[in-house]
Amino acid sequence: MNRILGTLIVFASASLALQGALAQEKGSAPQALTLSGEYAGTHDPSIAVDHGKYYVFATGAVRPPRVESAPPTPPVPGAARPSTAQLPQLAIRCSPDLKVWKRCGAIFPSIPTWIQQMSPETQELWAPDVSYFDGLYHLYYAFSAFGKNTSGIALATNETLDPSSPKYKWVDRGLVLRSLATDDFNAIDPNLILDSKGEAYLSFGSFWTGIKMRHLDRHTGLLSKTDEKLYSLASRRPGSLAQPRNPNLPPDTEAIEAPFVFQHGGYYYLFVSWDLCCRGLKSTYRTMVGRSTSVTGPYVDRDGKPMLEGGGSPLLQANGQWLGPGGESLLHLDHEDLIVFHAYSATDGHPALHISTLGWKDGWPEAALEGDSAK
């Protein structure tokens, strides 16, 4: 019954999305929301809504809040430094109105044991992606070591996002896919989409040969056994590298990651982050987009340049207040579409959550970053 209900929800949502698309083509310009509360420190946000309450899931370990008046605890000579892997993972923030945010826990109390055994270098879980279908919230997430492609994507599910509900429990569904040092892709930054036929696909990727996609078995949330093709969606560099690969870090020429596929009107839109994240004041992330009539591509930008050949149209770029806007996800609501992302303060380099409404003009999305008027 849940699968049938979920399928009906998918097609009803597609119909609403099309109606919303037509309305938003005539709508107002995008607006950056003013946020307050505990939204600082958010990285790679993914957003969902459950019974009118909004939830954002983010990369990383959840550290205890810092007490400004408390003196720092001196280190104990000879004591081992606590492992980040033992801290709660994948922070949750919640809001009743998309503007006032507070911390609402974490997905896992620590990195699951099987991940610590499979990937002992992993110290934090990354890039959660949440979606709802067939009666469950599906949260895909990544594990890896920074700058390496010995990575993996895993799945957790829950019946509800409300931590006060007796049904609230994140169930670890285990490994979905891996990438090894011998592969030409990196299995991080997952994003799930249900296409117009209700089929599930997972996009992912970072650096190397770019953004990839695999068909999933919708019932299990794991890889399809009938379609084992690895689809290629986008890349920064066509052809062979002009420089030898650094074995410890991929070259900046390959800097594309954080895919998110979003259906609007008659197109699938592929949002990606170009350039470099996670470098504070030196972060150069920017959000780019292309579109296709097929979920598996080919995707092209406004000028018709294929994203597999380095194409991409700019959506969000740095301004005087915020640097490196990226790590994006989107949410379709009845009355508007939203994009959530992180950006780094141009003052201190610290990341924070950002939310913008999406405008649509001539079939292409528009978004706003706080401080854009000060460009």
UniProtKB/TrEMBL annotation:
Its EC number(s): 3.2.1.99
Domain of life (superkingdom): Bacteria
Record GO terms (molecular function): arabinan endo-1,5-alpha-L-arabinosidase activity
Pfam family of the protein (one): Glyco_hydro_43
Signal peptide: 1-23
Keyword Signal part of the UniProt annotation: yes
InterPro entries registered for this protein in UniProt: GH43_arabinanases, Glyco_hydro_43, Glyco_hydro_43_endo_a_Ara-ase, Glyco_hydro_beta-prop_sf
Presence of the UniProt keyword Signal in the record: yes
Active-site residues per Swiss-Prot or TrEMBL entry: D44 (proton acceptor), E257 (proton donor)
Protein residues bound to substrate: D44, G147, N186, A187, I188, D189, S206, F207, W208
Keywords: Glycosidase, Hydrolase, Signal
Annotated site residue numbers, Important for catalytic activity, responsible for pKa modulation of the active site Glu and correct orientation of both the proton donor and substrate: D189
One Gene Ontology term from the biological process aspect of the record: arabinan catabolic process
Metabolic or biological pathway, per its Swiss-Prot or TrEMBL entry: Glycan metabolism; L-arabinan degradation
PANTHER family to which the protein is assigned, alphabetical: ARABINAN ENDO-1,5-ALPHA-L-ARABINOSIDASE (PTHR43301), ARABINAN ENDO-1,5-ALPHA-L-ARABINOSIDASE A-RELATED (PTHR43301:SF3)
Family, per entry: Belongs to the glycosyl hydrolase 43 family.
Protein name: Arabinan endo-1,5-alpha-L-arabinosidase
Organism: Granulicella mallensis
Lineage of producing organism: Bacteria, Pseudomonadati, Acidobacteriota, Terriglobia, Terriglobales
